[in-house]
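Forwarding these from the shared drive since the link keeps breaking.
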Amino acid sequence: MSSYLWRYYLENDVERFQRLLQGSQSNPHTSAHRGSTHKPALTTPTGSFKSSSVGLAVKHRPGSPPANVLLTSKMLKELDSMGRTVLHLACTEPDRLPFVTALLSHPLMDPSVADLESGWTALHRALYHGNISTAREIMSSCPANYNLLKLKDHAGDSPWEVFGATVHEIQDTFDHNHSSDVGKYSDSEEEADNPAVAEQGLEKRGDEVFAWGSNKNLNLGFIGGDDRSYPERVPLQRPRPLLLEQAKRRYSHLPENHGKSVEELIDAFILFNPMQISDIHLSKFHTAIVTTDPHSNLFLCGFGRGGRLGFGDEQNVQFTFRPLLTPLLPKKRVQKVALGQDHTVVVLDGGEVWTWGSNQAGQLGYALPQKTSKEESNQSTPRQVFGLIKREPIIGCAASRIHTAVFTEDALFTFGKNDGQLGILDSSDATTLEIQSTPRKVSANFLNGTKIKEVVAIDKATVILLESHEVWILAGHAYSRLSFPMERFVGLPEGAKNITRYDTGSNAITKITGGGDTLCALSEVGNVFAVDVDAALKERAVRGSGKVAWAPQRAWSLRKRHMAVRDVDVGADGNIIICTQSGSVWRRVKRVKIKEGGGDGGRYKFDRVPGLTRITTVRSNTTGAFAAIRRDSDLMQKGLTVEPQGLREDVSQMLSFGELFEDNEDAEGLGLADDNDDEWGYGPKPRPKQYDGAVKWFMQGMVEEDIRTHISDLEPHKESGGWDMSVSTSKCESIDLPVHSFILSRSRVLRKLIAQGSGNVAGICEILPTECGLRVVFHDIELLTMLNLVYYLYIDTVIDLWHQRNISKHQANFFKTLRSEMARVATALELKHLTEAVGRMHYPPRCMVKDLQSAHMDPDFFHTADMIIDVADGESIAVHSALMRVRCPFFEALYGGGAGGRWLLGRQGDADSSIHVDMKHVKKEIMEMVVSWLYYDWDAEGFDGVRVGVKDGDVDQYLDFVLDILSTANELMLERLSQVCQKVVGRYVNIRNAAGLLTAVAPCSERDFKEKCLQYICSNLEVMLEHHLLDELDSDLMAELDETVRSNQKRLFPHSRSSKQKERLLEKYPSLKLDSEKERASLIAHYIALSDVSSLSTSSKNHSGFPPTSSSPSSSPTSKAKRKSSKVAIQGSPLVKPTHGHEEIFSMDNDEMLPSSSPIRFSPNLSGTDETTAVVAKDIKRKAPANVWGEPHSSSRYSSPRYASPQQDPFELSTPPRKSHAPWVTPSSSVKLDMKEIMAQASAAASGKSALTAQLSASPATPPPPPPPPKQSTPKQDSAFKLSQKERKRQQQQQQQQQQQQQQPLSAPSTPDKKVAWNINTTPQTPRVSLKEVLASPSAPAEKSKPQTPATPPATIPSTPTPHRRTVLATHASSPTPTTSSSPISKSPPPPPRRQTHFLPLNLQDIIDQEEAQKELIKEYSSKRSLQEIQEEQEFLRWWENESKRVQEAESAQEQKKKGGKRGGGSGGKGGRGRGRGRGRGGSSSSSRGEASGTAGRGRGGGGTVAAV
C-alpha cells in the first residue's frame, strides 16, 4: 500500500495521506494483541456492547485506499529512484509539515533511515533546507533518542554539523575574531578541510557555568553529593554587600531618593543584572569561580578542612558557591586564581599575591609558626605574600599539589617542595634543597629578553609559554624546550609539501595546560598535543643519565574548520576535554574495544558532551569533575535599538505662532552659518526645525501686526488646540497669546501660581483668572521678549536676537535690551539653564525632559488636568488632554478622528469638564508608567527604581511587569515605548525563556524584538531543539523561524540557494518546466495504477465464494490455525503437525482460503483503450518482497508485474471448490492409524508396485520440444491452469478404469502438444525446494497428462506422503507446481484447455495472515510433540528413505530391460528439471560408458536414472 503514500504525497493530498496513515495504525496487526483477529465490539448509545457483524464486504471507494489497509515498516522505508523515502522528500520541501507529522505519528516510522546518495537522515535534510518546524517534529517524535543526533552521513557529518555549515557566519558577538576571519576562507559549499586560525587572545568571559561528573568531593557547586551525568547550570548570586554598594552609587544622589535607606534603593535592575564569568578552576577538593565584578568576585565551594576555602571558620563542607568577602580579602578585584590540592593562590589588581590553605610543603610562600612538629601548618584565611615579589607587578599564577609559581611579564618566581620543578639552577643546593618556603626567582637563560605569556604547574614540572610561542619545561633539575609536530598533514612522505593548496599561515603553540602527570598544548590552528611527564622522567631514570626525551603526541588533529580547538584541559588519567570553535565540548575516553595498530587513537576516542553549545572555557580535575563556561549571544542585549526621543518635536507642534515661521525658512542674507559652525549666533546644536525661519521672523519689523492677525485666525480653533491659558505683556495688553498650562509649569514658580489660581511674581508677572482661563501678564517687557520666552518653553532653545550680525546700531542696542529683559525674567521664574545661557551668551542645554519629569512628580502639576483615565480597582489618573493628544495616536483619534471628537460630548460630567477614558483593564501601576513616559519620554532608565520582583528575588515577576507595559503601549500605539520595553526585556533573554518571551512579544506591532529573537534562536538552535525549548512556539512563529533560517542561508550562499540559477535555466530551456510537470503527472499516474492493482487484490477476497454471514478467511480466528501450506514458499520446508478431529496424519492446507498458487485472475484492460492501462502494462515497476510469491529474485531492485493479454475478459475469477478436509487425505479412511500401522501397511504393499513407482515410470522416452515463445497460445500456457484436488482425483479414477478395460500396454505418446505430469520448468533462476514443500503446497496445477502403462498393477501407498530429503523440485509462480498422486495415471482425455490467465499475487493482508498462522503452527507443533512422536517420525523418515531407494532401483532395472541399447536418458540433477551434465543420482548401477553417456545426455528425465550400455 506504499503506492498510496507516494500518490497522495505527489498530489499534495494531505487529508487522504493522514487518513491512510491513521487507518493503518488501527489495524489489529499493529496492535499489542497481534494473535487475535477479532473485530472490536461496538458500543450502543446506552453503553451496552454488541458484537460487530462479520463477513460484510466493505465497499471500496474509487481513488481511496481499501479498508483495513496495513502499512508495514518496509513500505514506509520504500525508496524512489533517487534512494529517498517519502519522509526524506517531505523534510526537504517546504510547506510539507502536515505530511511529516502524519508520517512520524505512525508507530512503525523510523526517522533514522538514511538516503542512498549522501547518507542523510530526515533530520539532516530538514536542517540543511531550513525546515526547523520539521526538525522539531522529528525531535519530538523521539525525545529520548540521542543517537539520532549522532548519526553521521557519508562525509562523517552529524545533522548539526551540516546545519552549522550553512549558518556559520551569523553576525553576532559570540566570537568577534571568528567573524572577522570568515572572509579569509572560500565559500563553505566547498569542503572545509582548511583549518581556521584560532585567535587565542579571545575574551573568555561567559554568562553561565555548567558542571557535571563526579561530585564525591562536593566541588560541583550543587546541594548534595550526587554525581551529575549531564551538565547542569551552576547557580550564582551576587553578595548582598556588593548589591548595596552598587545601588547606593547609582541612586543615592537622585532627589527623589533622599531619605531612603540603602536597602530601599535596590531595584530590579541592580538585583537581576546578569553576572559575567571570567574564569573557573577545579582541584581535587575545591572549586573557584572568578567574575567580572569590581570586588567580592571570587566564589568557592568544596571541602574546607585545612583552610583551603579561606573563610576562616574551619568550615568542613561548602556545598554551593560562596563569595569571599571583605575583610577576608581587600576590596579589590581578583584577576587570577590557581588551585592546588590543599591551597589557593590569587592575584589581585595591582599585582598583589594572596595565598591560604595547607603549607606542609611551603607552597604558600611564607613560614607559619608551629607549636609542635606534628602540628599541621595551615592558613585558614587569605594572607599576602611578600619577599621578592613585594614590589613586583604579578600578572599570573599557577599551583600544583606541592608548589606554586607566580610571574611577571619577564620574571618567574617559584616556591614549595623542590622535586626538580622549581627551576633552582644557580646554586649548589639545587638538588639538596628540600623546601623553598619563600618566592625565589628562576634564573634560566631562556627567560632573558622575552615575555612570559602563561605558566602551568604540575607536581613534577613547571611549564612556561613565552610570547614567542616557545614552550619550556622545568623538570628533573633541568630545563628543556618542547618541540611539537606542527606539520599540517600527517602521513605524507618526508619532504612532501601540501598537495592541494598552499598554506602559509602560522601555526604555533598559543595555550598550555596540565593535570596529573600530563601536559597539553594548543596550537593556533586548533591541534592539541599531549606530553606524559612522568613516563619521560622514568625513562631517563632507567637510562641513568642524559637529557629527558620529551615526546609530544598529537591528541586532536584538525579535520574541519569548525572543529578547531578553542580551549583544552587535562583531567583524570590524562583524559582530555576540549571545546571547539563552534562551541561544542568533547571528552577523550578509553575505547571499549581497542583498535589494533591505532596507537593512542586506537586506545582513545572523543565523545561529545550533550547539551553544551557556545562554550568558551572547559576545566576538569583528577577525580572526574568537569566544568564549562558558556557565553551566550549578546544579540538581544546590544542588537535592539530605540528611536531618539520625540518629546521636543511633539511639543514644538503645539506652539501657537509656529505657523508664522513656515514662510520664512530661507535664511539667506541673515548671516546664519551651517550646522557645523560652533560660533555663537549661528544656531543651537542640533538646530530645531524652522529655526532659521524663526530668526528671520523675529528680526523683521512687523512682528506685532503678524501676531495680532494670527491670533484672530486662531480664535475659532482655540478649543481644538487645547490652549487653556494665555500670556500677554503690559506694553501690548491687546495681544493675548494662547499657551498650555502644562508647558508653563516647566517653571516651578509659575507651576505653584497656576495651582493656586492667582498670584504674582514681584516686578515680573501676575496671574489673573478670566472667563477663558488663567491669564499671565508680564510687566515692563517687550513683546519680543515674551515671544522668545514662550518659544523657549516650547522649543527648548532661544532666538539670539542680541548677537546677530550685519545689523544697525539701533537694532543692536534694542536687542541688548531684550537680552537684559530675558535674563531678568528667567531669574525670577527660576529657569536656571536659561539664566545661565543668556548670561554667558551661549545656547541653553536641552532640559525639557528633566523639567517635565520634575513637574510630573509635583502634585501641583495636575491641578489643570482635564482628562481622567479610569483604571482597574476603581482607581483613576489625571492627565492633560492636550499633551496626551499630541503624544499618543490613540487619544488623538479619540478627540479628533473622523467624528471630530463629537462623540466625546456625552462623556463630560456635570460636575466638571473632564473627559473620562475607560482603561479599567489596566492596572494603575502599569498606566502610571505609560503616563510618565508620555510626559517626559524616558528611555530604558525609566525602569530604574522599579522594585517588582525584588522582594521574592523573582525575575519573572519583573518581566511580567514590563510585558504588561508593552501590551498597553501596543494598545495605545506608542511605538517608541514598545521599543523601550523590548530593549529592557532583551537584557534577560536566554535560551530557557527565549521562546516564551517571543510568544508574548510577537503580537506587538513593533517587530524589532521578534526579528532579533528569531536570529537569537537561530544562533542557539541546536541546544534549544535538543532540549525541546521551542515547543512553546506556535505554527506561525515556527514558520517565521523557518523563513529566518532560510534567509540566513540564502544570504551566506546566494548562488546555491537563490532562484537565479533556476530562472536562468528556465530562460534557456523554456520547455523544462512543462517537462517537469509532465514527469510529475506520469509519476502520479504510475502510483495511481499501482494503487488500483493493490485495491483490486484486496477487494477480490469479497468475491471468493464465502457466505456473507461468515467472516472472511483473513479475519476468521479459526482459519489462521488451519492454514499452513501457504507458508511453504516462504519458509522453505513444511511443518509436520498432528491433527485434531481429522482422520489424516498430517493436516495440510485449508481450502477456506484462496491458495497462493491459485489467485484471482484478472485483466487490467478494463476499458479497452484506457491510457491508464497502457501505463500499467508498460511502466509499472514495483519492489516485491523477496520470495513472497515463490518467485526468484531478479537482479534489479524492482520487478514488473505480469498482465494478461488485452483480449481476455476484464474479470475472471477462479475459485476452487471448498472441501471439508485437506486434499491429500483419503476420504475412505475412517479410523485414525498410528505410525506403526502405517509402516506395516507400507511393508505389506512392498510386493506390488506403489503409486510412486507408477508415477516414476511415466517418464517420456524422448524429451518434449522447448517451450514456445511467450504471448502465444501454446500447451505451456495451457498448462498454467491449475485444477482442484477433487477434479484431479476424478480424472485419475477415469484413467484407471480405461486402463483396465483396454487390457493392453500403451506406449507413451510423443506428440509435442502433450506434457507429462512431471514436467519440470528448466528456468535457471528457479529456486530448488524439497519434496516436503511440494507435498505441503495448497494445490497442484492441472496439466494434460501423458498416459503410462505400469508393468505391474499399482499398489497404493497410504495417503500420508512424507517428503523426501533428496528430491528437489522447483517452484515458480508462472510454472506448474509438481505434485504426487495416490493412484497411477491412466490414459484419459485431458481437461479442456482454458483461456490463458495470469494470476494476481497474494496481497499484503494474505501474507501477514499466513505468517501469523505459521507462527501459531510453530508454537502448537513445538508445544504438543512428545519424545515418542519424534522418534516415530524419525523412524518413518528412515523407512521412507529405504522405500524410495528400493523403488528407484526397481525402476532403473525395468528401464534397462525396456530401453536396452538406448543412450542419453540421463537426468540432469537430483530428480529435478534441467539439463544433465553429470552422473545422475538415483540410478542403481553405471559403467564407465554409462557415466559418459549420462554426462553427454541432454533431455528431460523423470526418475533421475542413468541407463547403462
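-- next protein --
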Amino acid sequence: MSAKQALKSAKALMDAKNFQAASEQFRNALELDPKNFTAHLYLGYSLFQLQNYDESEKSYKNALDVDEKYRKQPPAWQGLLNVYEAQKKVDKYIPVAEKIATLFSDGDDRARCAAVINKMLQFVKEHGTNEQKKQAWKLILPDHPLFDYLEGVIPRPVDTYLQLAEILEKEEKEKINKEIAARRSRLSATKGNINHEVKCEVFEASTLEDVYHNILNWSDSDEVRREIDEKLLYRGFEKLVVLPSEKKLEQRAKVWKQAEGIVILNHPLEPAWRLFIEWKDSEYDVNVLRQYTEFFPESGLAIVIKAYLKSDISPFPVPVVEEKDEQEPEEEISPVQILADMTEGLAKETKSPLCHRIVGQYYLHVSEFESAVDACRKGKKLILFESRETGQVLQKNLDAVLGTLATALVHYESPQHHEEAKGIFLDLLKRNSSNSTALVGLGMILEEQQEYDQALDFLNRALKINPNDIKILSEASWCQVLMGNHTKGRKGLENCLELVTGIDAQSRELRAQLLWRIGTSIWNADEEGRSDRQGAYSYFMAALQSNNNYAPAYTSMGIYYADIMNDITRATKCFEKAFELSPGEVEAAERLAHMFAETHEWDLVEIIARRVAEADQKRSVPGKGMSWPQNAIGVVELNSQNYAKAIVAFQAALRASPKDFHSWVGLGEAYSNSGRHIAALKALGEAAKIDGENWLVKYMIANVHRELGDFDEACAGYREVLQLHPGEFGVLMALSESLVGTAESQIAKGYYGQASESIVEALNVSVAIVAIRPDAFSLWKNIGDACLLFTWIQSFADQFPWGIVRDLISTGIEKDKLNIMSEYDSVGSSVLDLDVEDQPLQTCIQMALLSFKRAIYVTADDRHAHSVAWYNLGAAEYRAYNSLSSGKDVYRSAAIRCFKRAIKVESGNSDFWNALGVCTAEINPRASQHALVRSLYINEKAPHVWTNLGTLYFLQNDLDLASEAFVRAQSIDPEYTYAWVGQGLVARASGDITQAHELFEHAFEISDGFAALAKREYATSMFDTIISVLPETSFTSLLAPIFALHKLEQQTIDEPAILHLNALLQERIGEFAKAASNLSTISAMYEEKYETTESEDDLIRYAQSMADLARMNLGLKRYPEAIEDATTALDLSADIPELESSRLSAHLTAGLAYYFEGDMAQSLEMFKVALEESGENPDVVALLSQVLWAKGGEEEKEAAREQLFNCIEKHPDHLPSILLLGSIGVLDQSEDVLEAVMDDLYSYRAAPMFSERKDQVDSLLAIAAKVQNKSPLPAITSSIFLRPAEATTWSALASLENDDHAAEMARMIAVGGEFSAEVVARALAGVGEIAADQRAIMIAPWLREGWEGLREDVEALKGRAVAGEGQKKVEEVWRD
C-alpha cells in the first residue's frame, strides 16, 4: 500500500472516531513517507483523542520539524496548545499561545489573536502560579509587540499592573520574612543588621517601583494615583533606611521629590508633609506650615507648629483675617497656654526633631532652662539618628538645636555646664564664624568666669552682626561695668533703656534688668555715696516699679537695708522676697542662711541650702564662690549619718569651688565614716595642701590611719598635732589609744619587746590626760587595756611601770572609791600601798583591775557606759583568772558578779551574755548554756559565741553537738581561729590524730601566730603526729611549731608544759643545749613544786623531766651528768607504773653514757635491767648487742650474735636487729649469716619504711655483695628501680660506675626535692664541677665529701692548665 492510500484510509478511520486504528494507519503512512506533514499532524490529533499526550506532543513537534514553512502555520501549534491545556502545563502553554497569537497577528487575524490571548489569560489565572501569571501578563503589557495590535480587546494595562504589583508586594513580604528567619541562627547576627541586610537585597533586586510608576503612567483614576503615590513614598523611605550610606543620597533625592510632589498637589498625605517639613534644612515656607496644621490638626507636629506660629518667638507675621460682619476680637494666647500646647504636641511626637527644636527654643524663651536642655538633647539625638538613616546631615537644623542647647546650658545649674556649652559654641563658630548665638553665648560664659576682656570681644563681634539687638548691647555694656568701666558701661545701659519702649512682660523684665544694672554700677563705683537715696537706691526702686517680681533688685535692696540702714527687719523681708522669687539668688540665700544660723534654726538653713543647690539658674556676686549651699547640705547629711549623700554634696561643692578647704575636710570625714579610708586620705591630703598648718586636718588624717591599722603613721600624726596644739584632750586620748593598738598589733606580729615599749609610752601619755580630764571613761578603759596587755607577754611583765600607773589611779580620787568588788577579788585601794615589784604579772593585773574599777566610778551617771564598765571589769577579772597560777578562783567569782551587774543594767547586749556563759562553763554548765543561747538569740551571727558554745559541749563530752557548733561558727566566719581549734579538739578526742593536726595547723596559719591556744595545740599536735604517725620528720617542718612555742614562752610564764614540749621538739632537730636548758628549768620547777605539794603528779613530771634531761646531756656528750640525771630519774620512778617508758629511757641513757665513759660492766648492767623491764624489747636488744660487740671480747661478740638471733626469731620483722646481724656478718665475712640476712633484706626493700632505713638496707646489700665477691651493681640498680626519686640511690650508682649521667640525675633530684643537707651536699659533690663542690661545702661544711671533691676537681683543672689548658681559670679559682 502506498503512503497516500494509507493516509486516506487513516482519515476515514479518524472521521469514524476510530482513533486507535487511525493512529496505526498514520504510522504506516509515516513509515512509507517520514516527511509527510499531514500524517504527523493527524497522528498527533489521534493520539490526543486517545489521551496519549506525550506521543501526541512528539507528533506535533515532528510535524513542525518537517519543514520551516509549517512553523509559520497555526495547525501544529494549536495541536500543541491543546495538549498542554489538557495536561495543564502552564509553563509550556504560555510560549505556544504567544507563538500562535503572533502568527495570527502576522496574518492580520485580530479576532483569533485576541481569542488566543484571552483564553491564555483565563487558563493561567485558573491553573498558573504567581510567577506564571507574571509571565502571561507580559504579553499584554505595553512593552510587548502584541500590545499595540490588540489594544482595546485585551485588559487595560493599569489593571494588569495593579495585579502585578499586588503579587510582587506579597512575594517581597514573604521573601523578607523567610530570609530573616533563616539568617537569625548565624553567629554574630543581630536583629537590626539582619533586617537591613535582607530588605536591602530584596529592594535592590525588585521591579516593584517600576510597576508603580507604570501604574501612574497608565492610570486615569485620581484615587489610584494617590494610593500609588503613597506606596511609592513609603517604599522609597523604607528603601532609603536600609541602603548603604554611599547609595542613600540618590535615594533620598527620589523620596524628597516624591514628597514634594504630594505637597505641591495639596494631597493630604501626612507622612509626605511631615517628611517635607522635617527634611527642610533652610527657611520654612509659612504657608506650608499653616496648610499642614489645617490638614492634620490632631497631629503632635501640627499642634506644636500652631502654638509656635502664635508665640512671641515666631518670625512669621500674623495672617490677615478678612473682616466679617460679626467680627469677634481674637483672644491673645498666653505663654502658659502656648507652653501647654507645645508640651501636648511633644508628648504625641516623641520622635520629631522639629518638635524638639521648637519646644526647646520656647523653653529657653520662657527661662525653663532644664526643660530646654532636655528637649534639645533629645532633638540632637533625633537629628543625628535621622541623618544616619537618610544619609544627609541637616546641619542648619542641628546647629539651631545645638545653639539653643548651649544657651540653655549657660544658665542651667550655672556654672556646672559651662565647659560643655563652650565646646558647642566653639564648634558652631568653626562652621559659621558669624553665628551670633555662639558669640553671645561665649561672651556670657566668659563674663561668668570673669574673663571680661575676652567676653567683651565676643559680644562686640556679635554686635557687628546685629547692631540693633538690645540684649547683646546690654550684655556688652554690663561687661564694661564688671570690668570697672562704670561710666562707659552705664552709658551703654542707658542707651539700651531708651530703646526699650514696649509694655509687654518681656519689655518690663528687660527694663527692670537695665535699671538694676545701672544701680549696681553706681553702687560699686561710689561706695561713699551708697547711702544717697537718689543714687543706686533710686534705680533699685525703679527696677521694682518696672517689674515688681525682679529678684536681683530685692537682693540689692536687702543689702542696702542691712549694710547701710542697719534695718535687719526690712533687709530680711527683701532677702526673703528675692529668695521666694528666685532660689538662685545666692547672695540673698546666703545672708538668710547666716541669719537663721545665728538663731540656731538649722532646719531653715538646710531648706535654704537645698533650694539654692537645686536652682536651675544661680546668680552670685562676681568673684565669690558658690560652694556654700552644697557644703551646708553636706554638713547636714554628715550629722544625719547619711554619708553617701554627704559625699555627693561635698563633691558638688568642690566642683563649684575646687579650693574650698572646708569642703575637702567634710568630704574626707564623710569618706572616713563610710569606710572608704583611702579616699578619705586623698581628700584630707588635698585639704592639707590648702592649709598645711591646720591641726584639725592633721588630726583627722591620723584618725584615718588609725582606722586603717597604720598605728605608726597615726601616732606620728597625733604627735605632730600635739606640737601645734598641745594639751588637746581628744588628741592625747587618740594617741594613747593608738599606742595601745600599736602594742596589740606588735603582739600579733610577735614583736613583744616593741609592744612593751608602746604600752609604757601609752601609760606615760595617760599622765598628761589625767591632768586634763580625770573623769574620762575612755581614759581608764585604755589604761586598763594597756595593763592587761602584759598578760599576753608575761616574760616582759618586769618592764611594767607600776609606779606611774599607781600614781595615775591615785590622782583626783578618794582611795576608798576604788574598793569596788574588793570583798570578792581582794583588789582594792590597799594594793596601791604595797611593794609588789617582785610579782610583776600580778601587779599588772591588779593595776588593770583598779583602772576598770575607776571607770565604773566615773560612769555612774551614764547608764550605757556604766554597763560597759562593768563588762570591762568582768573581762579583766576573767583574764586574771586565766593568767595566774594560784589563788585565781576569786577572780572568776568576781568576773561572774561583774557580768551579772552588766546584764542587769543592759540585758540586750549579746557580748555580756556570752562573757557570763564563758565564765560559768566549768562550774555551772547549765547556766553557761543558758547564757550562751541567750547571747545567740540576740545575735546569732556571732562566731565567737558559737565557738564558746561548742567548747561547752566539748567539755561535757558531747562531741556531736560541739562539732555542729564549731561548724556553724566556721560558716559564719571562716577566718575565726578558735572555731578551727575547737574542731581540731573534737577530731583529736575522736581519735583522728591526722585530721586534728591538719585543723590545728590551719588555725595556726590563719591566726598569723597570734592566738596562743592555736600555737599550743598546733605544737602539741605536731609532736603527737611525729610520735604516732610520722616518726621521720624533716628539719624544716619542725621549725614552725618550735617558733610557735618560743613565742608562747614569751607570752606566758610558769608554764613548764610548754618548755617541756619545746625541749622535746628541739631534741628532734639536734638542739640539745637549748633543750637541756629548758629541761633544767622544768625539773627545778617540778622539784620545788613537789617539795611543797608532795603530789604524785608532780613527782611523775619531775621524773620525766630528769629522764629527758639525761638524754639531752647524753646528746651533748656530758656523760657524767647524763648518768647522774638518769640515776635520779630511776630513783624517782621506782614502783610508779606510769613511768615505765621514762625508766626505759633512763636505763638506756645510762647504759650508753657508761659505754662512752668506758665502763662496760655498768653499761651492760643497765642494758640488762632495761631488757628485763621492757620485756626483751627488740630495740633494747639491738642496743645491748651493739654494746656487747663494742666490748670486743669473743664471748661478748658471741653473746651479741646470740641475742640478735633470738630477737629475730621472736621478732622476725624487727629491721634494726636484722641490719645489725648483717653488719656483724660483713665484719665476720660469714657467708651463711649474709645469705640469711640478705634474703630478709631483699624482702624488706619494697616494704614501707623511712628513707634512712632504706639507705641502710641498700648500703648493707651492696657491701655484702662485695664481701661475697659479687658485683654490687644489681643491688644498686634494683634500688633505683624501687626508688627512682631518691638522690642517694643515684649517687651510689654514680660512685660505683663513675657515671656522669647518674651523678647529674642525683643532683637534679636532690636540688629539686626535700632532702637533708647531707644528701644534697653529697649529690652535688659527686658531679665533678667546682661550682657544685662549692655549693656542697656551703650547704654542709662538716661533710668530708664536699672538700674532697673540691680538692680533686681543682687538681684536675690545674693538671689541664699545666698541659696548656686553662691556666687563667685555675688562678681565678684559687684566687676566689
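The chain has a mean pLDDT of 81. The two ends are 134 Å apart (CA to CA).

- D.
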